[in-house]
Amino acid sequence: MTILTAYIDGIGLLGPGFADWPGSNAVLTGAAAYQYQPTVMPVPMALPPAERRRCGPIIKVSLAVGYEAAAMARLDVKTLPTVFSASGGDGKTCHEICEMLASDDRLISPTRFHNSVHNAASGYWSIAAGAMVTSSVLSGFDASFGAGLLEAIAQVTVDHTPCLLIACDTTYPEPLYKMRPISDEFGIGLALMPTRSERSLAKISVALSSAPADTMADSVLEQLRVSIPAARGLPLLLSLARRESAACMIGYLRNCTLALEIEPCC
């Protein structure tokens, strides 16, 4: 069985009831009750004003969790390879394009078009960070978080280089919401390293398994996990928040999960 290993040096988190990683630890460990609040997206100040006005929710969430994870790990975003993973594009922009196509005026603005494509977040990240390094963009429907984690750790292992995973999803307005009911915006950022450093939070090992995915004990958090593909990573965040050696199963493909071994470094 092939096992991939990396070190987590930084974490970013944004979602309903989660404003950032440090403020979420008490909820994840059970020290504080989870309180649902709609996701509040910060203004992406790293972008120039023109791009800041044009960008949609998935870009705002991606920049927020990516910068938080990179800052915690003290990594230079200009030289940091990235993996972006999402189950779809920007839901609001896709809805607006569908409205235009269903109207008498079918001229789609270039801004709406380039915001709708799946690699839009990666493009805006390169503008904000001034990054000219490798960026991979992938989608795997409900398996997108697991696919992104595998890709990022594989790059760390093979290339022996740091990698920033940014996994995000955004909601769709009606009537698309009826067909794809993602409940809110949610994003996770993980700064992954090939070797341990003084900033390493935990060692993570990944292998494929047929065991069922872990669930969250809190019923509201469990509903969040199953309703947003990026939130499939919540059991991993729970293990990291507890700072204990742990094994957890992350949902991936049908009849296939990711078996994670977490060993805290501090």
Helix content: 25-40%
Q: Which percent band covers the strand fraction? A: 15-25%
Order of strands in the sheet with the most strands? Answer: 3-2-4-5-1-6-8-7
In terms of quaternary structure, the protein is single chain
Q: Span from first to last CA?
A: 28 Å
Uncertain regions spanning at least 5 consecutive residues: none
Over all CA atoms, what is the radius of gyration? 18 Å
Instruction: State the name of the first-level CATH class.
Output: Alpha Beta
What is the succession of H and E elements? EHHHEHHHEHEHEEHHEE
What attributes does this structure have?
single chain, 266 residues, alpha+beta, Peroxisomal Thiolase, Chain A, domain 1, eight-stranded mixed beta sheet, 35% helix, globular
